[in-house]
Amino acid sequence: MTGSQLSAVALPWFVLESTGSPAAMGRVMAAQMVAVAVFGLLGATLAGRLGPRKVLLFSDTARAPLIALVPLLHAVGLLSMPVFMVLLFAVGSFFAPYVASQQAILPAVVGDDETLLSKANARLQGATRLTILLGPPTAGLLIAALGAPAVLFLDGLSFLASALLLRWGLPRDLPIPAPPRRGRLRDSFAVLVKDRLLGGWTLSQVLGEGAWQALFALIPVFVLLRHGSSALAGVLLGSFGGGALLGTFLVGPALRRLSNLRLAVLGRVGQGIAFLALLLPLGPVSLAVFLAVVGVLNGLSNAPMAAVRTAAIPAPLRSATLTVIAASALSGGTLGLAVAGTAVESAGLTRTFAGLVAIQVCGVVLFLLGATAVRRRPAAAT
After folding, report:
1. Using one digit for the tens of pLDDT, what is the confidence trace for 214-250?
2. CB 232 within 8 A of CB 139
3. Taking burial as the number of CB atoms within 10 A of a residue's CB, which of 28, 34, 196, 235 is the most buried?
4. Which of 316, 377, 261, 264 lies closest to 107, judged by CA?
5. How far is CA 86 from CA 34, 45, 229, in A?
6. What sign results for the dihedral spanned by CA atoms 171, 177, 183, 187?
């Protein structure tokens, strides 16, 4: 994730420097997210068949050379825009099964109890949020010193390091329930349709991810158009990471007073309210404060949300269903990335930010509708 956070700044900066077009940046960045929509659903069946451990190992091993090809081809003058987009498309094809496998493997480690799952998710997300805190500011400095292509090569090395660590550290004999031989994808969709919480939260996540990805894509645009500093772009993205890391630290204390469901709802509603700040004229300092606040709320809500959702899915279908959910949510992110640059060019930053606020509010409404449909389920054995 540290390498990916370096690329989160280096990729859009590289495209903006090369083309000078926010719309081109949006299309290139959306290429890897389109793969989530295309291969996410197909990956649900594969993730269920292979199991989460194999998916994690294969994904990291494959993405290392793919992302490293970007700077290598650029160095020899063979990186055309179509080739660039194809490589990012290939990298993105692994994302949904990977994220889903991370969540699906946790019950085999800590059990099905929602509180334990929430704490385990908080630790996993805490590690991720730490990289969001440190990665973007580091990327800004590295881009200034080495250039964006060199930073992308470091991302390729990070995937290789991750694959080696997982091969060494992940047990081979985790008690993961075997999925049904047939109908994994059909059964996963049936779970989402029948369970109002899972269905409502999935639709909410589609809208929320679209707004988040558009916002993250627009931060380099905001900086480049008004300030021209890659270091400032890294600091702004890092402020979100710092807030999100703090939010994950608060999950444990908050669970002593609130249930997983109430904590998830509190954080999600808070994010929707905080997004109203985008309607105001924001400078670099106020934008950094906004990103830190929504980061805290995001970190506070994601772990309990993941715990409630994972516990609600039948164990044999978890890998496949979580992959479908991830693919659906990141498809919204694809649309957000693809539209963000064009929206800025045609409507300007102020109106585009207002659109993100409206999308977040709709997502909060769907989340609340899903939360109100929760029924008492039998307590999971621990």
Report:
1. 888 788 777 766 655 656 777 787 788 788 888 888 9
2. no
3. 28
4. 316
5. 11, 23, 28
6. negative
Q: Whose structure tokens read 């292509």?
A: 149
Those residues whose C-beta lies under 8 Å from the C-beta of residue 372, and which sit 6 or more positions away, are: none
The residue to which tokens 């627009």 are assigned = 218
Phi-psi region of 3 (alpha: psi -120 to 50; beta: other; left: phi over 0): alpha
Instruction: Give the distance, in angstroms, between the CA of residue 358 and the centroid of all CA atoms in the same chain.
Output: 20
> Contact, 191 vs 295, CB < 8 A?
no
Share the mean pLDDT of the chain: 81
Burial of 354 (0-12, 13-18, 19+ CB in 10 A): middle
Amino acid sitting at position 32:
Q
**Cα dihedral 252, 253, 259, 264 sign:** negative
- Cα–Cα distance for residue pair 371/201, rounded to 1 Å: 8
CB-hemisphere CA count at 13 Å for 203? 18
